[in-house]
Every structure is written in C-alpha cells, then in structure tokens.
Amino acid sequence: MTIQRDSVLFGPRIAYPRGGLIDAIVDGHATTRPDAAALRYRGEAVTYRQLIQNADRAAATLHDLGVRRGDVVAVRYPTSPAMIAALLGILKCGAAYAAIPMDWPRPRREQLLEKARVRVYVTAEADGGRNAVTPEALSGGATAPPPARAGLPSARSTMPSGGDGSVAS
C-alpha cells in the first residue's frame, strides 16, 4: 500500500498554541483554507467549510439537548466524517467525550454510561436509550451555534481503560 503525499497522514503541518483547544485550532485553519480537504473518507473529501458547518450544527443540537461545559457525551459509532463532526461539536460545547469501542459488549457499555454520568449518547443503535442520537442527526439538526466558550478551560476526551473490561472511575 502506498500512502499519497496529500493523504491525512501527511496533511498540513500547522503551528498551534500550547494548550490550544482542538476545535478552535480546526476553526482557525478553516478560516484560512475553507475549501481545502479536512478529511478524506472512502474516496470522498470533506472540506474544512463542510466540517465546521456540520460541527457547528452538532454543537447547536447538543446544546439544545442540554449538553454544557463539563458534561460527558459518549460516542460509539464507526469512524466517518459525521462522527468527526460530532466529536468537534462536543468539544465546541465545552464537553468531553468518552469513546466507546465498537466491539464492547452491552454490559460493559452500560457500565461506562453509568459511571461517566453521560448526558447524551451518540450511537446508531436503536436501543441507545432516551438520550441517544446519531451523528447524522446532530449535523442535520439545529442551526444556531451554542453560546461562545471564550475563556473556558479545555475539555478533554476520555478513553475507557482497564484491560479486564472495567471502566476507570
């Protein structure tokens, strides 16, 4: 397999401030190169403009669903442009995300959802629960952006740990 120079693995190298927020860095890059490819997925390119528009809609929808700074949003969805926009939308709300691996059994997922006190669960599962929403629904939802989060501390993503199947407390 040959990796092309224009692939995401060799994407643009940009300087960013230490401690900068990921979503703010992506937003900043989008203002300078809105029509550049932000993502390449299955032969299709998603521009920074499209990514930011979808992330802003996701953030607005999450805000409408009650997601606020410091909340945790669980994400269990195959990698796709919609999932990346959802992650950026979560960060734009000042929330953190807990990534749930696709191969985790239901009891293990339920344990994480309970321990992390998840506000919203981003998943395609029909039985995701009352706070479940799909990434596609997020990026096609509300149009008003959430309140600006200038000066807010950086939200962090969380990855469940514990090789024995436990979830870190």
Q: Nutshell version of this structure?
A:
The chain is of the alpha/beta class. Helix content is 33%, strand content 15%.
Overview of the molecule:
- The chain has 169 residues and is an alpha/beta fold.
- The protein has one domain: Rossmann fold, CATH 3.40.50.
- Helix content is 33%, strand content 15%.
- The chain is built from 5 helices and 6 strands.
- It has helices spanning 22-32, 48-64, 81-92, 106-115, 135-139, and strands at 37-41, 44-47, 72-76, 96-99, 118-123, 132-133.
- It has a 4-stranded parallel beta sheet, sandwiched between helices.
- Strand 1 (37-41) and strand 2 form a beta hairpin.
- Helix 2 packs across helix 3 (81-92).
- It is globular.
- The relative contact order is 0.16.
Helix-strand layout with pairing:
Blueprint: H1 22-32, E1 37-41, E2 44-47, H2 48-64, E3 72-76, H3 81-92, E4 96-99, H4 106-115, E5 118-123, E6 132-133, H5 135-139
Parallel strand pairs: 3-4, 3-5, 5-6
Antiparallel strand pairs: 1-2
Helix pairs in contact: 2-3
